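re: ur question from earlier - yeah i can do the single chain one, its not a big deal. heres the input i used so u can compare w yours
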Amino acid sequence: MTKKPCIIVSAPVPADLRQLLEASCDTVDVPMGKSPLEVLPQEQWSQIDGMVCTVKTRVDAALLDAMPALKVVSNFAVGFDNVDMNAANERKVLVCNTPGVLDGAVADLTIGLMLCVARNLVAGDAFVRSGAWTKGAFPLATDIRGKTLGLLGMGRIGRVVARTARAFDMDVIYHNRRQDTEAEAEGIARYVSRDELFAQSDVLSVHIPLAPETRKSIGAREFGMMKKTAIFLNTARGAVVDEDALIDALKNGVIAGAGLDVMTTEPLPADSPLTQLPNVVLQAHIGSATVETRRAMIDLAVHNLVNAMTGNQPKAIVNAEAWPLAREAQPA
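and the output i got, formated as tokens:
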């Protein structure tokens, strides 16, 4: 009789998808964000074959060494900076994620932040609610039409942002590790150097992953190159920005404003300097936080795991080179 693989569930899985998991796997629940090593008894560690988790679960060398049977980690996110990829690759652990299904939602939020900052919509709402409108007109804001939008990173989300921005008659430029000839042929954006991107953009939007080489890669130098009227947007990862440098730039008028869905520390403490700045619009890392998108994400994350556990290739794999070994290691 074939033994069912044993998997950790550390993500919000709805009832129908839970049934799908339980049809082919034995499941063990771990609260979201908690380390399985803190929750599960040590004798159970060696029994775990796979897991579905959020980015709040740190999958590092210590966890992988403690769970030698673990062969698949399915992230309920497009990002995978919670996983030590070097450690996973060394141990031939398959890592899956959920790209594609959240592109539209994150792009929509990016455009929303741009409008909120440029048109000062959050302050405008407070202006009306406070009764200040009865005493005078609200200050003038800034147009986005005809302005230059710069995209640092031109992946799936960047392309959707670029296409949407063209509807606002924006000139879209981008910088990426590799030129996106398809996007250029489509006429939605044109390639510039990294320095040119920061210098030319009226709105600069970040769409790069968090990796050792991108951590704090946007700092005082980059903000110093930007226009004093420029707006900075980040819906990617907070840690790609030197947050102290950003705060200084916003305080000292180096740039005009910022719209942030991500920060270095999350949740953002109430006493953070960012919360005190009137030229910043803040959101609670809600880029993918719609009913439709979150359902699509967890559906993909669960199917990635079930497919891997049953010897079928998952749809979304981060380290494809680990797939043949993960398939060979299925429980007998």
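The chain has two domains: 6-101+292-328, 103-282. not sure if urs matches, ping me
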